[in-house]
Amino acid sequence: MDSRKMIGFGFLRKCGAGVMHLFVVTMCLGLSMCNIYGAHYAVLSNAPTWLKIMILPLYYYLVVNYFAAYMQAVFSDPGRPPKNPEDSLTTRCQKCNHIKPERTHHCSVCNQCCMKYDHHCPWVANCVGLKNYGYFIKFLVTGLIASSLSLLIEILALFSSKFCTHCTTTTRTLSAILCLTFSACSVMCCAMMFFSHVPYLKSNQTTVESYDNDFDKRQAKKNGLNYEYPYDRGLKKNLEEVFGPKVILSWLVPFWRNVLQVDGLGYVNCKNNKL
Ligand SMILES: [Zn+2]
Ligand SMILES: [Zn+2]
Palmitoyltransferase DHHC domain spans which residues (predicted)? Predict the structure, then answer.
């Protein structure tokens, strides 16, 4: 018997990924709870009624939309290839032996293939691919808006000495430092991740594909040619491929289920169409 199998490297690897996921997901939820604490208990609970009526419904709508998108990104099928496809696809993954349609990649953390694979995200403890990329982007954007609002509320309260007025001076100082740090961290993390995905969203690329596309683009430039991304169908259709045809509703309604028009077995290849 293979000695690697005997001592259970596969099991240890799974445990390692499990511990990493648990740590990062707990951190993500912890940061979110600190933001809610900072905005609600430390500031808004002491605010005048008119301000509470104006801000609280908007703030909690954002929070619910954020948690809904997060749960959908974590628990959705990211787009595993079907076991018995109708089309007789012959290409198979050498690592898991599943069928491998175009734009499919094998995730070494999950040890499974994922269609339109973008990356494996420890923040959502899941692959990010064809079916949950929209939820992942919505999680980043709602997280960015909610944590920015938390930060703004906390800064305004701090400058007007309304921060945690029911606390002792020590608790107030500690709460202010922690809340502002956590909110600023959340804003930075969400902003960095979201803005790195904007060019991919616009041009219908995945993170994995962008490496090859960037290389091909440089090569084409050297040869005086104009490189076109193969799957770029224009902004509207690119967004519909990620969020489904009802893009606005998918953003506004918490737990909205994106119904995609692509099944992941084939894509419109704009480059081929133009030839
Ligand atoms: Zn595979
Ligand atoms: Zn994965």
Answer: 92-212
pLDDT band, very low/low/confident/very high, at 274 (cuts 50, 70, 90): very low
- Phi and psi at residue 221, to the nearest 5°: -65, -40
Eight-class DSSP state of 99: B
What is the residue-averaged pLDDT of the chain?
A: 84
121 given a catalytic annotation: yes
Tell me how far apart the alpha carbons of residues 181 and 150 are, in angstroms, rounded to a whole number.
11
Q: What is the 98 CA–ligand 2 centroid distance (Å)?
A: 15
Question: Among all ligands shown, which has an atom nearest to the Cα of 92?
Answer: 1
Where do the domains of the chain lie? 10-274
- What is the number of the ligand closest to the CA of 93? 1
Residue, of 97 and 172, whose pLDDT is higher: 97
Return the closest-CA partner of residue 115 out of 272, 234, 231: 231
Query: Quick one: tokens of 31?
Result: 């940061």
Identify which ligand lies nearest to the alpha carbon of 125: 2
98 touches 115 (CB < 8 A): no
Task: Supply the pTM of this predicted model.
Answer: 0.86
Cα 201 to ligand 2 centroid, rounded to whole Å: 20
Least confident among 10-24, 47-61, 104-118: 10-24
Taking a 5 Å cut-off on Cβ, the residues next to ion ligand 2 are 107, 109-110, 120, 127
